[in-house]
Amino acid sequence: MKLFKEFKEFISKGSVLDMAVGVIIGGAFTAIVNSLVNDVFMPLLGLLTGGMNFAALSLQLGPNEEDVLKYGAFIAAVINFLLIALVLFFVIKAINRLRSFHKAQEEEKAAPTPRLCPYCKSEIDPAATRCPHCTSQLAP
Length: 140
Description:
single chain; mainly alpha; two-stranded antiparallel ribbon; elongated
């Protein structure tokens, strides 16, 4: 019974749930990025290189069919990796830009606006009880 209670506490922690959501979203996002690379970028790259299919490049090393060096598959995997990294770079860059824009808006809203002294009309801190310019006593 105690083991079940400890497991229940562990699984209901926020960090574990956040990690689970991240893994699920990451899997779905991986499918999207792979589709973008394989179905959009790789065919365009093939057109730019004269219709070349990198995955089909190979070198026969011996008389048997199994003696094949498939260097084209490696080239395709490297290109696939670089394109996925490029797409992720741009996605993360866009997310960071949105976050910084949102953070700047929040900071702008949170900044205290100065008030005017009713006697000398100078700007004073909103929490001030006495004007630092004319030394008048201020109402709270």
